[in-house]
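sanity check this record:
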Amino acid sequence: MRILIVEDEKDLAGIVKQGLEEAGYVVDMAHDGEEGQYMAENFPVDAIVLDIMLPVVDGLTVLSNIRKKGIDTPVILLTARDALLDKVKGLDTGADDYLTKPFEFGELLARLRSLLRRKGQAKEAVIRIADLEINTASHEVTRAGKNIQLSAREYKLLEYLAYNADSVLSRTEIVEHIYHEDRDMDSNVVDVYINYLRNKVDKDFDKKLIHTVRGAGYVLREENP
């Protein structure tokens, strides 16, 4: 997977680049909007991390320009803490997600993984894992043809696990990505909702799909580890 970082703060860009490379990604970098737009248009990547406050051409203009050219690469915007208007404009312009500076690298990594998973399954309205089916349009969930009723929060957690099937997600990643609107939520709450999901998704079936990886987190996968 190849990621483009467009960020004029070179120290921050370097840290993010190093972290992504350690996570197995190939990383390209640009330090102003003009260079970033050129690279986005001419060198295919799997996702773009795009700062809004850029020299030469600002990030929102870059985003607008590449979307007008039909480039649908997933984009995560980096915004200032109080720049609510920029966030709204960014999402309206075609951004897929945003992060507020300063941010934790783990949160950026989790959001990138989710976007890349969504990109890979963009043509599939239904995610299938063994006999579990998740309709991402209607939010209907079935297992072996049996309808499973989930709360909104339970569904968000299951969908996130499904988009990252076979990848272990830490409690912190889940809180930051799924429940990021609840800034004070304790990561132990994730354990509670995992148990809710298990009671609905796994309890009546011999084959379990939701697994605990001790000391690491949770993973949704067909086979036992």
The mean pLDDT is 86. The longest strand covers residues 2-6. The domain at 124-220 is CATH 1.10.10.10 (Arc Repressor Mutant, subunit A). Helices lie at 10-22, 33-42, 59-68, 84-93, 105-120, 152-163, 171-178, 188-202.
